[in-house]
Amino acid sequence: MVISLFTELRKRYKLGIVSNGIYDPKLKIKQMGLSNVFNDDTIFQSEQYGVRKPDSKIYSIALDHFEKEASETIFIGDSWIHDVVAPMEMGMGAIWVNAKKLAPNSTPIPIAVVTEIKEIQKLLL
Question: What domain range is 83 assigned to?
């Protein structure tokens, strides 16, 4: 399901990953079978750039790579602070994957809140 979702999204959107993970996200993407969707130059690992989410610099690096303005971008993720609040403060839209059904602890209003990643298909395709 995830592979087909991202494959379809890639037909309409430029996709990238911004990660604070200490693991190698490029290896993880390869192991998940998603390297045809996310190639190495579209994965922005904080360790590689010396800046971590929610610092706006890491998002700016990705925006510059894709030659996009924040207002042209939707950030999708599961962290309220890193994937919703910080991108929205830069002017991006956001979709919060809130699998744990947590209450937000601040006021930005994302484009949508979903509990499963597959719900994004209905929103963006």
Answer: 2-124
Tally of domains in the chain: 1
Is 12 exposed, middle or buried (CB count within 10 Å of its CB: 0-12, 13-18, 19+)? exposed
110 neighbors 94 (Cβ within 8 angstroms): yes
pLDDT given at position 86: 97
CB 66 within 8 A of CB 48: no
Average pLDDT over residues 10-21: 96
In this prediction, residue 21 carries a pLDDT of: 87
Report the C-alpha gap between 86 and 29 in whole angstroms. 24
- Kindly state the tokens that stand for 16: 């990238």
Edge-to-edge order in the sheet of strand 74-77:
74-77, 93-97, 112-114
What Å distances lie between residue 98 and 79, 82, 119, CA to CA?
Answer: 8, 13, 11
Give the domain CATH number at 77. 3.40.50.1000
Structural contact between residues 57 and 49, judged by C-beta atoms closer than 8 angstroms: yes
How long is the chain?
Answer: 125
